[in-house]
Design the sequence.
């Protein structure tokens, strides 16, 4: 991270507005941990879930951290980084799941079919009764509506602890707490901007709408054809 | 049925038209394009071999080039544009076009956002046009541009053939239809040494590892046109990697 941005985020972390929003996130986590018997954390590895995980682990160090491995659509070095980052942040009970379909039929919407269609029901049957999700109102109108109307993707209630935080708050927390984050941010942020850089899968038809393959093609071109080399 | 007949007509015209190109002699050349506007990229490099083939196909098909779904057609009939069967002003040897990837005089990258939207007021009619889905969907596109003033390629090619084809090229890179990568002019110069594959021990284009004795890095890349076709992916030394070619290449 560039020095000027680091200084900006460190300065931001001293603002009372930031502290107020951070306090609200901590309160949501505290109340949810009291309300639900067995919640878990959805951890994608991006900046928002990194911050959320750190906040939750301060109050519930043994909570289950669930990470979905997107197979061929997430470069292996990044997947290793995500898992290593989760452990560095303090996740003791880390659960990583994936699907064989990434090798068999990668053109299908696997995450929706496998995770939302099957694995969530397994988690419900195991007794998990809520999930912490790291999305924010500021991100988009769709997310704002989803948070406001409590629109959940599955039958599992979702908790949005960092919903009121801004992108500056998230980076300020990461920098001031010296949290590890995926190295792709250092490639994307100087060009795309710290406010707009998103961490999603790469060259994945399922989530192409969230990223931009033409930008990925220039910035992480080495990964573009990596799926072609996997024998099927 | 109609579409099938249309496609077979196009294929026949392509095969007839492309067979008229005949290039006998090749020499080491350097092609420099002078740019009038920044160049947009969706890949780290631009390939002149695919650009030249694009110009050949457009030359053959004329206005039909813009009405036929060529990508779909060529995906199923890859042999039509096979470099083994047609003559190209860039030399094709050892399964490779002897042409370097683009070299831009500036390497700093910037982001630009454009908004693609239809202008229904010019469309006429009284029916409503859906702008949030379907054919006329409005959307925001972000792309990376490099404010380069020139692009250089090293190649082994036929000077007259290239000069004739490249005259018809107005822009280079992505999104040339909206003014990016505008070409102000180009020069073709003869070089003493052929730098199309290797210069100072470094690869100048993706080279399949089968052609290399030694290489510092290997990455799956498409190594010949069409570069969007994943069937052309091989393990290659990328441009910039230290390489040693096998004897006789």
Sequence:
């Amino acid at each position: 991270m560039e020095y000027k941005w680091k200084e900006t985020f460190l300065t931001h972390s001293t603002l009372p507005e930031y502290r107020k929003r951070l306090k609200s996130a901590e309160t949501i986590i505290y109340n949810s941990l009291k309300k639900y018997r067995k919640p878990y954390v959805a951890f994608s590895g991006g900046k928002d879930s990194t911050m959320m995980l750190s906040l939750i682990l301060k109050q519930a160090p043994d909570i289950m951290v669930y990470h979905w491995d997107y197979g061929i659509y997430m470069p292996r070095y990044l997947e290793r980084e995500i898992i290593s980052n989760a452990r560095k942040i303090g996740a003791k009970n880390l659960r990583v799941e994936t699907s064989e379909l990434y090798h068999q039929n990668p053109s299908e919407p696997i995450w929706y079919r496998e995770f939302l269609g099957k694995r969530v029901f397994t988690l419900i049957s195991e007794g998990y009764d809520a999930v912490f999700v790291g999305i924010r109102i500021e991100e988009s109108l769709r997310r704002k509506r989803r948070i406001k109307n409590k629109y959940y993707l599955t039958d599992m209630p979702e908790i949005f602890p960092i919903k009121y935080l801004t992108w500056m708050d998230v980076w300020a927390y990461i920098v001031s707490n010296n949290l590890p984050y995926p190295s792709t941010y250092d490639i994307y942020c100087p060009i795309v901007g710290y406010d707009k850089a998103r961490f999603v899968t790469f060259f994945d038809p399922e989530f192409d709408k969230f990223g931009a393959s033409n930008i990925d093609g220039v910035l992480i071109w080495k990964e573009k054809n990596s799926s072609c080399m996997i024998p099927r | 049925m109609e579409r099938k007949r249309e496609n077979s007509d196009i294929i026949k015209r392509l095969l007839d038209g492309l067979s008229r190109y005949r290039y006998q002699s090749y020499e080491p050349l350097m092609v420099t394009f002078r740019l009038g506007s920044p160049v947009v990229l969706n890949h780290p490099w631009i390939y002149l071999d695919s650009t030249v083939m694009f110009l050949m196909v457009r030359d053959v098909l004329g206005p039909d080039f813009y009405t036929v779904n060529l990508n779909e057609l060529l995906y199923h009939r890859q042999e039509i544009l096979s470099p083994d069967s047609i003559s190209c002003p860039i030399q094709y040897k050892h399964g490779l076009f002897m042409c370097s990837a683009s070299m831009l005089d500036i390497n700093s990258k910037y982001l630009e956002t454009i908004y693609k939207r239809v202008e229904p007021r010019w469309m006429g009619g009284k029916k409503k046009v859906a702008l949030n889905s379907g054919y006329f969907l409005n959307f925001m596109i972000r792309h990376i541009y490099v404010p380069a003033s020139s692009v250089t390629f090293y190649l082994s090619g036929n000077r007259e053939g290239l000069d004739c084809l490249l005259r018809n090229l107005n822009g280079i890179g992505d999104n040339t239809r909206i003014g990016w990568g505008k070409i102000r002019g180009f020069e073709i110069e003869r070089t003493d040494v052929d730098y199309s594959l290797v210069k100072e021990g470094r690869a100048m284009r993706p080279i399949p590892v089968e052609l290399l004795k030694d290489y510092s890095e290997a990455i799956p890349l498409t190594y010949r046109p069409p570069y969007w076709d994943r069937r052309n992916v091989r393990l290659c030394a990328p441009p910039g990697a230290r390489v040693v070619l096998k004897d006789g290449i």
User: Anything to note?
Assistant: The radius of gyration of chain A is 18 Å. The first strand of chain A starts at residue 39 and ends at 42. The beta strands of chain A are 39-42, 64-68, 93-97, 130-132, 158-159.
